[in-house]
Amino acid sequence: MLNSDNDESRRVVEQCYRTRKTLVNPIIDWGTDDVWEFLNDVAKVPHCELYDQGYSRLGCIGCPMNANRKRELEKYPKHKAAYLRAFNRMIKARIQNGLKTIWTTPDEVMSWWLKDTEPQNDGGLFEQEDAE
């Protein structure tokens, strides 16, 4: 077995104890600058221009794992509107199905999604039981 991918104890050469295979991690100790230097100066690999605009992670717009989701949704208002519509459908579906919800408006969900507010508790939000 190996250590986790992000473990500080990872080594350039490792032995998997389960399979007995030797693994080589040639860039294990590279930092972000090392990666970009290699991509731009050595391999000359083209890259998405969003990296040049300050993005360090690309994926879905508004992804909850992205620290820049608030900025992204401001930059792409149609995506924000789509999220709000989806949040509204979610609230309506939960109410129609007799499920609990702690939100009454899509904007409340958006505030939580962007981590502007934290619910005191989820109020049973994710329970599958019918509300009483």
- Major beta-sheet overview: 2 strands, antiparallel
Give the overall average pLDDT.
83
Sheet with most strands: strand arrangement: 1-2
Instruction: Tally the structural domains.
Output: 2
Number of helices: 4
Percent strand equals under 5%
Roughly how many Å is the radius of gyration? 22 Å
List how many beta strands DSSP finds.
2
Low-confidence stretches: 128-132
Helix percentage: 25-40%
* Structural class by helix and strand composition: mainly alpha
The helix/strand series, from N terminus to C terminus, equals: EEHHHH
C-alpha end-to-end distance: 48 Å
Gross morphology is elongated
Q: What is the structure about, briefly put?
A:
This protein has 2 domains: 1-47, no CATH class; 61-132, no CATH class.
How would you describe what is shown here?
This protein is mainly alpha-helical. Strand 1 and strand 2 (22-24) form a beta hairpin. A two-stranded antiparallel ribbon has the order 1-2. The chain has two domains: 1-47, no CATH class; 61-132, no CATH class. Helix content is 35%, strand content 5%. The chain is built from four helices and two strands; from the N terminus they run E-E-H-H-H-H. Residues 128-132 have low confidence and may be disordered.
Summarize the SSE layout with pairings.
Layout: E1 13-15, E2 22-24, H1 32-42, H2 69-75, H3 77-96, H4 106-113
Antiparallel strand pairs: 1-2
Helix pairs in contact: 3-4
